[in-house]
Specification:
Chain A contains 15 helices and 2 strands. Chain A is about 75% helix and about 0% strand. Chain A has one domain: ABC transporter involved in vitamin B12 uptake, BtuC (Orthogonal Bundle). The termini of chain A are far apart. Chain B is an alpha/beta fold. Chain B folds into 2 domains: about 240 residues, 3-Layer(aba) Sandwich (Rossmann fold), CATH 3.40.50.300; about 250 residues, Rossmann fold, CATH 3.40.50.300. In chain B, the strands form 5 sheets. In chain B, strands 6-7-8-3-9-10 form a 6-stranded mixed beta sheet, sandwiched between helices. A 6-stranded mixed beta sheet of chain B has the order 16-19-20-13-21-22, with helices on both faces. In chain B, strand 7, helix 6 and strand 8 form a beta-alpha-beta unit. In chain B, helix 8 packs across helix 17. The two termini of chain B are about 45 Å apart. The model of chain B has no long low-confidence stretch (mean pLDDT about 90). Classes of the chains: A mainly alpha, B alpha/beta.
């Protein structure tokens, strides 16, 4: 009797952790990209729009071709294109980054809805793949990216399956997190990115190309937001619903602040916020009240507000290193 | 010192640089030799920093040539300058507070190209620091350091980038006397190594403490270059402040009346929380102009703000007409009849987007007859405006014109009209605190403002005049108080003193033992 309860508990915990990692990865990928953009001084509120466009294209491409890799690349490419718009507006034209970002989010939500509207969708799919049967074109779902078990590591009780019996994008996110952290803090280009976000005038005076760095960081942010969107669809919930990002782009933005602009802390925060999402699903399944989920979903925002309040103290700002030139356009004087 | 041509590190020839409305450098020549500390002396706005910013590639000269080690060069950016071995330490540090010392020092270097070897760089930085008798933790973050340490990092950064031409802009302004002595020792060591150092300053003491040669600038021109053996304090002070032609203003002699403003041992903090006023005792009387002379940044702004109730004092008393108003807030000062002509008319003196009539009641709009129970009487506001525009000869199409569209002189007249003539009931102000009241004005407007101040002096107001223009101070003042580093170096009468004496006090080289109130 007791052993059975323990076994059920362990199984529940394993499943919970596994979906925590999956939900967290969506946030992790988007927030990693945004961390780079913000470190260079560019605030991108278009993350949500870039994610949903990424998700929409990964849906369309997998449906049309069945090629996951192609779907991922197209999703990243399209989101990068949106990021390019944001970069031109906020870096070259030096306009308000908040307005530009929000406009891109609204545009992305609209565009993704239009492209996946059944009649439009069928046309697009037929254009990509003329031999696609009509019945396929009306499908809302595609096969989920397969899980791959890592030998030995996946055998670790509870944690093993949660972290090492997942799909390729999740493994990529582990590598990416460490790589992006290392690049940002241990290499000269990383130091240049951080310096540009702190004091672009000084970096410029030392011969660092502020515009180039900001463009690259913003485009990287877009690409990763696209990857996050692609993962959301083909790696996590392979059933197309309009607006399926459901505010995750904004949670990712909050996460960047929560994690104080560090890729490693972003990972921790992503699993924390992802855990909240997973827990909320599980509580619903278990039939716990209808109000609890809303309260749980507020948690990422509430914690972010607490972090923001803490950041209002000069001392904490200094210690954490809020990019001093965040959202401030740079123009060389003379 | 060896001044043979082969020892020339830098030669700047006929440098001209103008900014809108200002000729900052007017055919300036400047030479720096290997192994010298060359003091660049002058008042604020003399063009010292502009000249060095040109050498450092921050500004491009309109005319002129620059030779570095005998070769003509074009310096387009600080990166170019560093490449030529020229490094500059600015008055305001250019460091990134959340980054470590090492990260700040190695920023902008070309090697290593990709992976940073922070450990090695830290080691090299420590070695470099100890060579000049400094100690610094390379892994400390900039925000954890004191001002002196930050400056050390700036200098280390320049040296680490391989510069042998060092420009220091007012380097001691943030240092304690002990730190200053330490800096001078280090600079002398660098000189022995054959580096060339330009030392920008307005303090005579420092010129004598470290300089081999001195170049004095005034109003964009070089007025003298000499070796220190030949220089005397008096001569440098005279060269620095100049001996301009005085054109006499009509100034009636009137007997000063009762004290209006009394400052008693006032201490106050500056913008950055450091002490800006350190025990100021002054009195301004009715029918008297007290002029405050000093190089900008020695506490004048804080003094003016204390006198108008805008800045809190941390110690001491502020008394107006016998009533203690210490830290009572600006409204108490307004109600005592204190007027203020601030330094920046467009930022502090006016709401630039509002019209002339509105600007003319800004100080007194809450009092009758301009408002009653929180409702503004616009008819009275307009009447007041019409009256002041006529009285103060403000040139404006009508009183509803936005002040942004007025000329600088007329904008200043709006401020002067409000402050001097805007008191309800036609009362004259008890005290007028005027901060650089003629800065940036043409000759006509300048004369008008000066005459107006004197007219109100004769009508009974006490005038507290802060100016960086010694000529103006000498012309208008009945007494002159010289401020240096937040302290009064002496109070003198213009008829009993000289430019030289005031110049010495401004540079902190002289202090009167007895300071009459």
């Amino acid at each position: 009797m007791g052993a059975e309860v323990v076994a059920v508990g362990v199984e529940w915990l394993g499943a919970f952790l596994s979906s925590t990692v999956q939900a967290g990865t969506v946030l992790l990928l988007a927030a990693l990209g945004e961390t780079y953009a913000e470190r260079s001084g560019i605030l991108n509120l278009g993350v949500e729009g870039m994610m949903i466009v990424g998700a929409a294209f990964s849906y369309l491409i997998t449906l049309a071709t069945g090629n996951d890799l192609l779907a991922i690349l197209v999703a990243m490419g399209m989101a990068t294109l949106l990021a390019l718009i944001h970069a031109v507006i906020s870096i070259s034209f030096r306009l308000n980054q908040i307005v530009s970002g929000l406009a891109i989010t609204l545009f992305g939500l609209g565009l993704s809805g239009y492209l996946t509207f059944p009649d439009v969708r069928v046309g697009i799919l037929r254009a990509i793949n003329p031999s696609l049967p009509m019945s396929m074109a009306y499908r809302q779902s595609t096969p989920k990216l397969p899980d791959i078990s890592i030998p030995l590591l996946s055998q670790i009780p509870v944690i093993g399956p949660a972290f090492f019996r997942q799909n390729a994008i999740i493994y990529a996110s582990y590598v990416l997190t460490v790589l992006l952290w290392w690049f940002l803090f241990k290499t000269r280009p990383g130091l240049n990115i951080r310096s540009v976000g702190e004091n672009p005038a000084m970096a410029d005076s030392l011969g660092i190309n502020v515009y180039l760095i900001r463009y690259v960081a913003t485009l990287l942010g877009g690409a990763l937001a696209g990857l996050a969107g692609a993962f959301l669809f083909i790696g996590y919930q392979p059933f197309w619903v309009e607006g399926m990002t459901a505010g995750r782009g904004f949670v990712a933005l909050a996460l960047v602040i929560f994690a104080a602009w560090s890729p490693l802390r972003v990972m921790a925060g992503a699993y924390l916020f992802g855990g909240v999402e997973a827990l909320q699903f599980r509580l619903q399944v278990l039939g716990y009240g209808t109000t609890a989920p809303q309260f749980l979903l507020m948690l990422p925002y509430v914690t972010t507000i607490i972090v923001l309040v803490a950041l209002s103290y000069e001392m904490i700002r200094k210690k954490i290193g809020v990019p001093a030139a965040l959202a401030i356009p740079y123009a060389r004087e003379e | 010192m060896d001044t043979s041509p082969s020892k020339k590190l830098v030669e700047m020839r006929d440098i001209v640089k103008s900014f809108p409305g200002v000729l900052a450098n007017d055919h300036v020549n400047f030479t720096l030799y290997r192994g010298e500390i060359h003091a660049l002396l002058g008042e604020n706005g003399a063009g010292k920093t502009t000249l060095m910013n040109i050498l450092y590639g921050l500004y491009r000269p309109d005319e002129g040539k620059i030779l570095v080690r005998g070769k003509p060069v074009k310096i387009g950016s600080p990166a170019d300058a560093l490449h030529l071995g020229i490094g500059m330490v600015h008055q305001h540090f250019k460091l990134i507070p959340p980054h470590t010392v090492v990260e700040n020092v190695i920023l902008g270097l070309k090697s290593p190209r990709f992976k940073l070897d922070v450990g090695r760089a830290a080691h090299e930085i420590s070695d470099l620091a100890s060579r000049y008798g400094w100690k610094i933790n390379p892994f400390a973050r900039i925000w954890q350091l004191s001002a002196g340490e930050k400056q050390m990092v700036e200098i280390l950064k320049v040296l680490y980038h391989g510069a042998d031409i060092l420009i220091l802009d007012e380097p001691t302004s943030v240092l304690t006397p002990q730190e200053t002595r330490g800096l001078f020792e280090s600079l002398k060591k660098m000189r022995e190594e054959g580096k060339g150092i330009v030392f920008i300053t307005h303090k005579l003491e420092e010129v004598f403490a470290v300089g081999n040669r001195v170049t004095v600038m005034r109003k964009g021109r070089v007025v003298a270059t000499m070796s220190m053996e030949k220089a005397t304090r008096e001569e440098l002070a005279r060269l620095m402040v100049g001996r301009p032609v005085l054109f006499r203003l009509e100034k009636e002699s009137v007997e000063p009346g009762r004290p209006v403003l009394q400052l008693e041992d006032v201490h106050a903090l500056g913008e950055k929380g450091v002490p800006a006023l350190r025990g100021i005792t002054l009195i301004v009387r009715e029918r008297e102009v007290l002029g405050i002379a000093g190089v900008t940044g020695n506490g004048q702004l804080e003094l003016a703000e204390v006198a108008t109730g805008l800045r809190k004092v941390t110690h001491g008393r502020v008394v107006v007409d016998g009533v203690d108003v210490t830290n009572k807030g600006p409204r108490a000062f307004i109600e005592k009849g204190i007027a203020y002509i601030p330094a920046e008319r467009q930022r502090e003196g006016l709401v630039i987007g509002m019209n002339v009539a509105e600007n003319l009641v800004l100080r007194y709009y809450r009092y009758e007859p301009f408002s009653r129970r929180a409702v503004i009487n616009w008819r009275m506001v307009d009447e007041n405006a019409e009256k002041l525009v006529r009285k103060f000869e403000i040139v404006t199409p009508n009183v509803r014109e936005t002040t942004r569209h007025l000329s600088g002189g007329n904008q200043q007249k709006v401020v002067v009209a409000r402050e001097l003539g805007g008191r309800p009931g036609g009362k004259t102000p008890r005290l007028v605190v005027a901060m650089y009241p003629t800065r940036g004005l043409d000759v006509g407007a300048t004369e008008y403002v000066r005459k107006t101040l004197l007219r109100y002096r004769e009508m009974g107001s006490a005038i507290f005049l802060v100016s960086e223009d010694l000529e103006e101070i000498f012309q208008l003042s009945d007494r002159i108080a010289v401020i240096f580093e937040g302290q009064i170096m002496g109070v003198v009468r213009p008829s009993e003193t000289s430019y030289e004496e005031v110049g010495l006090m401004m540079a902190g080289a002289k202090r009167l033992e007895e300071i009459p109130a």
